[in-house]
Write a structure and sequence with these properties.
The chain has one domain (5-257). It has eleven helices and no strands. The protein has helices at 5-22, 25-44, 59-77, 81-89, 91-96, 102-131, 138-167, 170-186, 199-205, 209-220, 227-257.
Length: 259
């Protein structure tokens, strides 16, 4: 009797989580990175908070939600490297010759990546607080911000997985990921409020998932939460994550057919 989908998903997730625990340096680097960003950007752009029209009490409190989303964005962009390693080592082919569910193979790795992103998100918020950021939205605001980061991570982890399964090459994955994440970072409101951006950048930012997630976190962690923004941007992220997750499942089937 074959195992249920839930059991298969649990086993695949455990496999990826165990691998991550055995290589803690990856999570360590992912935590050190936002420390550098918070210290670097927080000090370099600190005077931005004094610019007329900035609209926030201090730059650091404005910056932390953006750094939170940038952290999971970059982490998600490299998620497909695990599949590349499996393809190179032959593990993927052996897994596909077993009766394990193909969606479980994809979703198990996604669940593991989202767990890592939650840990990263909590650490970013703690580091930001230690650096002097203020979260007026309290615990609820931080929880909403973490939820938005998970939705953003789900979209980009699935995107990275799809690219990895289709390209099957580490260099190609790195190149494509870089092309995606760098414009996404600077064509967003993660580092600068929309009112201070050039018009063309502000227009592009409206269609940027990083801006959607950052907007959710910024309003959720502010004194006056705009729940309309939270609801609409969350809905957009859910739709995006669902579409890209479907694409990653299609990419897995495409890889299997090519064997």
């Amino acid at each position: 009797m074959s195992a249920t989908f839930a059991t298969q998903l649990d086993q695949v997730t455990r496999r990826w989580v165990t691998g991550a625990i055995r290589q803690p340096w990856g999570l360590g680097v992912a935590i050190v990175q936002p420390v550098i960003w918070i210290v670097l950007f927080g000090n370099v752009f600190q005077s931005v908070g004094q610019v007329p029209g900035f609209g926030h009490d201090d730059y650091l409190s404005f910056l932390v939600p953006g750094i939170l989303m940038m952290t999971v964005l970059y982490s998600g962009a490299w998620a497909g490297t695990g599949f590349i390693d499996d393809i190179r080592s032959g593990v993927m082919d052996r897994m596909l010759s077993s009766p394990v569910s193909r969606p479980a193979l994809v979703l198990g790795q996604l669940v593991q990546q989202l767990l890592i992103c939650v840990v990263q998100g909590v650490m970013v918020l703690v580091i930001g607080a230690l650096a002097g950021a203020h979260y007026a939205g309290g615990v609820l605001g931080m929880a909403v911000a973490l939820g938005a980061s998970v939705l953003l991570a789900a979209a980009f982890c699935s995107l990275s997985a799809a690219v990895a399964l289709l390209a099957r090459d580490q260099t190609a994955l790195i190149g494509i990921s870089t092309i995606v994440v760098l414009p996404a970072t600077f064509l967003s409101t993660a580092l600068m409020p929309v009112q201070l951006l050039p018009d063309w950048v502000a227009t592009a930012a409206k269609f940027n998932p990083l801006t959607w997630a950052t907007s959710i976190a910024q309003t959720a962690m502010s004194p006056d939460v705009d729940w309309g923004v939270v609801a609409t941007r969350s809905a957009w992220l859910v739709v995006l994550a669902t579409i890209v997750a479907w694409w990653s499942l299609r990419a897995m089937r495409s890889y299997q057919r090519s064997l």
